[in-house]
């Protein structure tokens, strides 16, 4: 019995270590986005290059965490809630890695824009949209840390605001391109940036849905916001 208790404590420690490293990965990805968006405004090439170069660190962490979860599942054969936690972690780190890819995309587009000396650059402000997506990511990570279903549901609802911002940016860019064809090349680069930010919102929403699955055992993917709320009675 003592041996079983010891094994159980070891297992709990392994799960907690995995959760902690997911949050560390989330912090790295969050910083990538902040620096990429800042570099978009400042044109600081050293920061842009750092964001691009740092992507491999996020990729390596995803691979390591994936292996750790697979080993825990194979060795421990966890039951219900612990298995849901590990499955949610595996899915979450995939989305975090993809958010890192989107941050790298923003940095690469910023590099192209500044290499062209911002010629024929449309007057666009992306900080509000980026701020909304970043807030979603932070809240999704917080919901994961606290196993907070209510906060996770708020993230799911916030995705519509990011989508609305993206549609507004798209309409503006179309107007710019129609009025001055010389802006087409820059507008397309800005469009790639806007799409990357919109995807960060999508991945953050996915992460929030995994929190709901982890806590309540309900798969709420592909449901509308109101359907999720009704399912959870929130």
Question: Would you kindly provide a written description of the structure presented here, covering whatever features stand out?
Answer:
The chain has 234 residues and is mainly α. The protein has a single domain, classed as Methane Monooxygenase Hydroxylase, Chain G, domain 1. It has helices spanning 2-42, 45-76, 80-115, 127-146, 149-179, 184-216, 225-232.
Shape assignment: globular
> What is the number of independent domains?
1
CATH architecture heading = Up-down Bundle
Q: State the distance separating the first and last CA atoms.
A: 41 Å
- What is the total tally of β strands? 0
Tell me the Rg in angstroms: 20 Å
* Name of the CATH first level: Mainly Alpha
List keywords for this structure.
disordered N terminus, Methane Monooxygenase Hydroxylase, Chain G, domain 1, 0% strand, 7 helices
What order do the helices and strands come in, and which of them pair?
Blueprint (H helix, E strand, L loop, with lengths): L1 H41 L2 H32 L3 H36 L11 H20 L2 H31 L4 H33 L8 H8 L2
